[in-house]
Amino acid sequence: MKILVCITHVPDTTSRISFTDGNTKFDKSGVQFIIGPYDDYALARAVELKEQSGGSITVLNVGEAETEPTIRKALAIGADDAIRINAFPEDALFVAKQIASVAEGAEYDLILMGRESIDFNGGQVHSMVGELLGLPSVSPVMTLDIEGNTAKISREIEGGKEHIALSLPFIAGCQEPIAEWKIPNMRGIMSARTKPLEVREPTSDVSKTQVSDFELPPAKGDVKLIDPENIGELVNLLKNEAKVI
Length: 245
Fold this sequence. Notes:
By secondary structure, the chain is an alpha/beta fold. The chain has helices at residues 37-53, 68-77, 92-103, 125-133, 186-192, 231-240, and strands at residues 2-6, 9-11, 19-20, 25-26, 33-35, 56-63, 81-86, 110-114, 137-147, 150-157, 160-167, 170-174, 197-200. Helix content is 27%, strand content 29%. The longest helix has 17 residues, at 37-53. The protein is globular. 33% of the residues are buried.
């Protein structure tokens, strides 16, 4: 089985976020970057499928040179080779077009990625890639099993779960509990140093969006503690101050 796993290079969820240049640029100083958590699930399931059925895993990242340590971690986890599109991931359509340019004609059986990145949280790339390649796209995928040329998947829908069977190839936006995150061992880390990482220049497509500025969420307000016996005061505050009832 030939699998393409698309990964993002995102700030660790514990990072303190700030902006520079009049709130027009993200300040990367002192920020630890990781594989997008949802992409980690996609990669982990790809490794499990490879262990079950054989084949190969290619990881793909749209990013500049600073993303290569993140890509090497994906190689250490179990991918066989990697491709980096040498461009900043400006927006979902730009990224989707880069992924489609790599996948077109490459005959991947599966294209896996996270259901969304945790920096932009758009959740659009998988469906855009599906449209560009003319392939089915399903998200968020919670379970994925392969039987021959057929995939059986389940995903969350409003009020429940949906179970789907479809033929390969297709694109999946993954989330827990599709697999458990994998931690690279020392052997994987050492072998990742020599695994091929190809750098390609982006297609001529340009981003159709532009950031005007960033804004942090408002600071949390003061907390008022109410005696558990004083229900009347709680109701009064919820009604007249918080205005939620």
